[in-house]
Design brief:
Length: 115
């Protein structure tokens, strides 16, 4: 499965808007298959951008987001502006397929892009 950078952006921005600190909520992105959403949740979890409640049943792991981390807020700040987000993806270039690469780039550039 491939990383969908626009879905990644939607998840982070929706989490920033909808998730109060440490409160577990039902969190869905309309029109996105649960398998695709769970894949992106796993990547976002690995990148340390959000906290998740994880449940396991048989061979299936399900994540429900409940809080953005500090780095999640830093990334969300840069993602809000669509033009800035496109600039970030262009600067990263071929490595834009990795959430970790995006996060490292945004954090390293913190303060260097206009908000």
């Amino acid at each position: 499965m491939k990383l969908d950078n626009e879905l990644f952006r939607k998840i982070i921005l929706k989490a920033e808007e909808d998730l109060p600190a440490d409160l577990k909520l039902n969190f869905e992105i309309p029109g996105v298959d649960d398998e695709v959403l769970q894949y992106h949740y796993r990547l976002i979890d690995e990148a340390g951008l959000m906290k998740f409640m994880t449940t396991k049943a048989d061979d299936h792991v399900s994540r429900k987001p409940y809080n953005l981390t500090y780095n999640g807020h830093l990334v969300a700040e840069k993602m809000r502006d669509k033009k800035l987000w496109k600039t970030i993806l262009q600067k990263i270039g071929k490595n834009a397929g990795s959430i970790i690469t995006i996060v490292e780039f945004v954090i390293s550039q913190s303060g260097k892009f206009p908000s």
